[in-house]
Amino acid sequence: MAKCEICQKGAHFGNNVSHSHRRSNAVWKSNVKSVRVSVNGTNKKMYVCTSCLRSGYVERA
């Protein structure tokens, strides 16, 4: 799973807990997209989460 190159957000791990309180493994994946970003005047492809895109931390190419 890819990580956001801005905030390092990745997959989170934990447990699904049923009504009878039995536990099974769970993975929650973050919403990471591959986007073209302008970095120092050049275009580069990066993995960026959608919260960083909305916040304006990166400028799209």
From TrEMBL:
> What are the alphabetically sorted keywords of the record?
Ribonucleoprotein, Ribosomal protein
SUPFAM superfamilies given in the database record: L28p-like (SSF143800)
Alphabetically, the GO molecular function entries are: structural constituent of ribosome
Which Pfam families does the protein's record reference?
A: Ribosomal_L28
Can you name a GO cellular component term? ribosome
Could you tell me the superkingdom of the organism this chain comes from?
Answer: Bacteria
List the GO biological process terms: translation
Q: Which InterPro entries did the record assign?
A: Bacterial_rp_bL28, Ribosomal_bL28, Ribosomal_bL28/bL31-like_sf, Ribosomal_bL28_bact-type, Ribosomal_bL28_sf
Q: Which HAMAP family match?
A: Ribosomal_bL28 (MF_00373)
Q: What NCBIfam families does this protein map onto? A: L28 (TIGR00009)
Protein family? Belongs to the bacterial ribosomal protein bL28 family.
Instruction: Kindly provide the name given to this protein in its UniProt entry.
Output: Large ribosomal subunit protein bL28
